[in-house]
Amino acid sequence: MKIGVLVNEGPYTHEASDSAYNFVKAAIEKGHEIYRVFFYHDGVNNSTRLTEPPRDDRNIVTRWSELAKAHNLDMVVCIAAAQRRGIMDENEAKRQGKDANNIAEGFRISGLGQLVEAGIQCDRLVTFGD
Amino acid sequence: MSDEMDMEEGGVIKKFMFVNRKAPYGTIYALEGLEVVLISAAFEQDVSMAFIDDGVYELKKGQDTKELGQKNFSPTYRALEGYDIEKLYVERESMEARGLTEDDLLVDVIVMDRAELAAKLDEQDVLISF
């Protein structure tokens, strides 16, 4: 099955990102195709590489980056939601005149059309969040 | 699901429903949700919206956000018609529980009871809930 995933909550405060991660991993193991993981609302906060949790806790951001690398996942962060919350890639930082960027490896910033398109292309769009 | 899809001009038309469950200003879900709805209009899908629980407050007439220091985005609901998004379903039980009637709402809606709306949700290909 071709599956799209929507993550609507940020890391640590809410379990949504953990559940989405576990779901994506399990789906891949079962042979399903993950078409895209889309991060929206506070979900965009899952993509900052400046995240540094205590050593005995999981690093949610790094975990996503590693999963993306291992399985060639398309992880998309909504540009409008990202701008509101200070998530920048190099291009966006330059365009907005910011002195830094913070997006982690494996994530890309793009528009909401990517979410709608995932809904059209996938057999299932699965939402994680409230 | 695929047997329910229509092919038109080579594209797939799916039934997208955006389910709005939250009051408009306490959290960002309603505002950012509306952004997805507007984008979806560009994809020529069969788009509808449902308003349940506190989501019915999103459509209340006379919203004044001056004291909140937030933008009053309620006029956007009136613009949906221009995007060919005209199927706005409101759950009767949610409306009545909040002392509202159709006259309190700023757009024309289709009021349905819970069971009818549940059947409507069941018809959809893609449900995105905010």
- Average of the residue pLDDT scores of chain A: 97
Shape of chain A: globular
Query: CATH homologous superfamily of chain A, by name?
Result: DsrEFH-like
Class from secondary-structure proportions of chain A: alpha/beta
Assigned CATH architecture of chain B? 3-Layer(aba) Sandwich
Helix count of chain A? 5
Task: Tell me how many strands of chain B there are.
Answer: 7
- The CA-CA distance between the termini of chain A, in Å, is 25 Å
Order of neighbouring strands in the sheet with most strands of chain A: 4-3-2-1-5
- Per the CATH scheme, the topology name of chain A is Hypothetical Protein Ychn, Chain: A
Uncertain regions spanning at least 5 consecutive residues of chain A:
none
Number of strands of chain A: 5
The geometry of chain B reads as: globular
What would CATH call the homologous superfamily of chain B? DsrEFH-like
User: Biggest sheet of chain A, in brief?
Assistant: 5 strands, parallel
Q: What's the SSE pattern of chain A?
A: EHEHEHHEHE
Q: Report the sheet-strand fraction of chain B.
A: 15-25%
Q: Tell me what the CATH architecture of chain A is.
A: 3-Layer(aba) Sandwich
Elements of chain B, N to C (H/E): EEEHEHEHEHE
The level of helicity of chain B is 10-25%
Domain count of chain B: 1
Can you characterise this structure?
The complex is a heterodimer of chains A (130) and B (130). With 130 residues, chain A is of the alpha/beta class. Chain A has one domain (2-128): DsrEFH-like (Hypothetical Protein Ychn, Chain: A, 3-Layer(aba) Sandwich), CATH 3.40.1260. In chain A, 37% of the residues lie in helices and 20% in strands. Chain A has 5 helices and 5 strands. Chain A has helices at residues 16-29, 60-71, 79-85, 90-95, 113-121; strands spanning 2-7, 33-39, 75-78, 107-110, 124-128. In chain A, strand 1, helix 1 and strand 2 form a beta-alpha-beta unit. In chain A, helix 1 (16-29) packs parallel to helix 2. The relative contact order of chain A is 0.26. With 130 residues, chain B is an alpha/beta fold. In chain B, the strands form 2 sheets. In chain B, strands 6-5-4-3-7 form a 5-stranded parallel sheet. Chain B has one domain: DsrEFH-like (Hypothetical Protein Ychn, Chain: A). Chain B has 4 helices and 7 strands, in the order βββαβαβαβαβ. The model of chain B has no long low-confidence stretch (mean pLDDT 93). The chains are: A alpha/beta (130), B alpha/beta (130). At the A-B interface, helix 5 of A face helix 1 and strand 7 of B. Chain A: GO terms for molecular function: sulfur carrier activity; sulfurtransferase activity. Chain A: It is found in: Cytoplasm.
